[in-house]
Amino acid sequence: MGRTFFVGGNWKCNGTSEEVKKIVSTLNAGQVPSQDVEVVVSPPFVFLPLVKNELRPDFHVAAQNCWVKKGGAFTGEVSAEMLVNLSIPWVILGHSERRAILGESDEFVGDKVAYAISQGLKVIACVGETLEQRESGSTIDVVAAQTKAIADRVKDWTKVVIAYEPVWAIGTGKVASPAQAQEVHAELRKWLQANVSAEVAASTRIIYGGSVNGANCKELAAQPDIDGFLVGGASLKPEFIDIIKSAE
Ligand code: PEP
To answer: What Enzyme Commission number(s) does the record list for this chain (predicted)?
Structure first.
């Protein structure tokens, strides 16, 4: 079953409207094979309408978070319904920065993924181990538990892309080796096969994130179970275009 290569750009909490416009015009000028790759960029909430209006139509936008259930008296939150109302198709959920800094548990992330999908959003769901967990040999158990919390709540896997993002590789310049990333991606696919279905295992995109850049993306993209990338720092730079083209 073909899995279209997927490249997401997570702009995190960066940018002014001028800087955002500059990034968008670089993306709009990029020569990319748009039928072979799905590109989704994720600006901060406040810039979503601007980016959605100015971005080329073959690229899409994602929010970086949304509330776990229907909106209401939740000061500072943005609901899935609001994103749908603005025709934002994607949302990133379970990013390790939110898990670590804001204390989002596996179950809370699973609830968010399920609610976002129930409202019509597609989800980039992030999983990944800390350095301590890797060094103690529990990487696979950690990512399996994070994935299980999602699988326990989600029926429609066509709406999910899993982003494997080892925490020790995010924003550190220490990218996982192609073999390290491939090993976890293959284990995640095995987990989906054993615990969800063979069809979901074969069709779900599992993308890698953590210090991906224009120089290391090709070797990672050549791994059989790496179906694309979630890119942080390099998604703010012109080399993001090279990353989009890495599967060529
Ligand atoms: C991320 O934050 O999702 C990420 C992968 O960041 P970076 O590429 O900067 O490591």
So the answer is: 5.3.1.1
